[in-house]
Design brief:
13 strands; globular; 49% helix; 4-stranded mixed beta sheet; alpha/beta; 7-stranded mixed beta sheet; 559 residues
Length: 559
Amino acid sequence: MSKLHVRHIASKLQELYKDKIDITDGYNEEEKKTLFLTRSFAAYSLQILAGVSVETAAMAVVDGRDDNAIDAIYFDKKEKILWLVQSKWIKSGQGEPETGDTSKFKTGVADLIDFELSRFNTKVQAKQQDIDEALNDYEVKINIVLAYTGADSFSTHNQRIVDDMLDLINDSSEIASFERFTLSQAHRSLSGIIEGQPIKAEIAIENWGKVEIPYKAIYGAVNGSSFAQLWSQYRSRLFSENIRDFLGKSSVNDDIKSTITNEPDNFFYYNNGVTILCQNFIKKPVMLGRDTGQFEINDLKIVNGAQTVGSISSVYEQNPEAVESISVFVKIISLENCESNFANNVTQKTNTQNKIEKRDFVSLDPQQERLQTELALDGITYQIKRTSDILSGEKQCNVEELMIAVACSLSNVNYTVLAKREVGKLWENISSAPYIDIVNDRLTAVKAWRCIEIMNRLSSYIKEKSKSISGRERMCLIHSNRFALHLILNQINPQILLDPNYDFNTFCTNDLLPLIESTEEKIFSIVEERYSQSLVHQVFRNYTKCRDIKDKATGSVNH
């Protein structure tokens, strides 16, 4: 059966990707055929897992000589996910990639994250802008995919290589995940990949109710495993009308997973549930119990609840029993006889109304209002509340900038690391540390603004300097931005930040640039001396390593 499944997939790849995959580097027709299958399967894995079009998936392929074991690269800017794929076409449908190939994949991923693009072919180098943008954004997650037409089993040796790779990348914070796209997964997906083909599913709803006017809708509780099964078959196609896909690891999704695992009985009460749009629904003549109905849903689209469904499915892979014990509130709306703009309105309103973020509670702190008034007296606009208005002009700043800059000025380097790896933690609770250590009655508007000015000048230096360097040196410059700011703010005479009468402009003009240059040079030297085997982007998210680098740097400065 495995060979037959491989044949089915090969036929579909021909149908989808013929004349869309570059195979001109093949020596003969047989090699070109193998190259096509390997490369189109890499594209197909992105089509299914990332939910992209055939054209986008084909353009992501970078396989070729000197590809450093990475066969496809795709940066989803909307969802902030960098996809890295290695593809292996196994004709027999049996087995798995050799450990040597998996090990090369690990090396290639590490080289890419360290921005060592000279080790890659021109196809990869052509994606430099996307790679650069992805690696410089702390919110971006990296999805690493091993796609192969083989068995679902995975050897201990291969798993160890993958675990080592993830340990290396996720040294201080979890930004990368790994998944395999095997023959069975690829074959299961064949039934649902035709572009535009509506999703048709049957869902059992407990304690269900209905609304008839003005539009038809049903609601009730659905077992979590139903959504896990939908995700397994359709993935991102479930969210084709949603404003965002599943975001993977985030604080919100971690909370969802924690509730599933630790408080399954309360999940129904804690979670906002899932909103589904469809063309119509039909109650099936199936007896499942007095209060349970089996419904056929035609053209199913999840427009709110992508993070809930994705988190449920993530837990299901490891702990199906936990997912089977939760109930999810669901609202299913039929678009029969609805106004033309009704579907868009439902999608927009269910994703935007009454959404409060922890950062919004900062505006309740009287200290923020005091700082806003003091800064205004100096002609500086300080934006505390989130707004759609875009500030313009040099003398303006927002609460995030102030929190980051002042956090980096504190002697505790842990707050600097927090600003790099989980900036939202700085204002998670305005009644406790770290917030009250950063913003309190001792913080003056003078110090806050000068910290921000130095941070902005450092950012400008990094932006310009990064254009002329590459590889680990460039990554170190970019990712050490908060740490370098911390060293600078803690090296300078405190009066520079605190004394309103100090000639701050002269300091910035004459002394700041040499200080920035010497600090950056010192940081890179220490990183290469002590952490040459670590991925640079994670060094500055690691508390222990940053304390060590600071001790070394300040010890050298003091002596």
